[in-house]
Write a structure and sequence with these properties.
Strand order of the largest sheet: 1-5-4
Largest sheet: 3 strands, mixed
Number of strands: 7
Number of helices: 5
Number of domains: 3
Radius of gyration: 22 Å
Distance between the termini: 41 Å
Oligomer: single chain
Helix content: 40-55%
Length: about 200
Amino acid sequence: MANTPPGLPAKLDHYIGGAPTASSDGATFEVADPVTNQPYATVAAGGPEDVDRAVAAATAAFNHGPWPHLPGRARASILNAVADAIETRGPRIAELETFDTGLPITQARGQAARAAENFRFFADLAVTLHEDAFRAGGTQFSYVIRQPAGVAGPGPRPRRPPPPARGGAADRRGHRRRRRLYRVTRLARAPGRPGTGR
């Protein structure tokens, strides 16, 4: 076994409907320490049935829970509380991320800080999101009211462009252009910064 950080569980299940739960078919996979390549944890391997269970649980929570009816300030308070918890545990989160992926600790700390900032971004948005009104022909009035739509999940990230096949200057310029496009795409799709690259 790898020399794992203290307190790290050896088995991780899905978290669906507010409780840990194994995969529907019992499938698992091992996670290895990138330094020693030795497994340090067994993790539930999700399949289509597990995704369906998670979506059903989230939909039930949305349809029958308080979130859609909470005022913006109350939603912001909850999201800021999540951000506070992430910031409080930031060093621990960074430690585990570095152990799990081999990421430099400075980058792992930045990722933990960014995770908290994402929640704060949406907390601010909950109380500052504006609605629109339009006057048509002087006698009609149209308006837009924004409300929570329901369950959503993250989409796939764009694939990293392959390196150039040849070493010529033109190929290197083309590769740099592809890398720039990749970075812009990643920024545009970054969580909490839709279309802004912030």
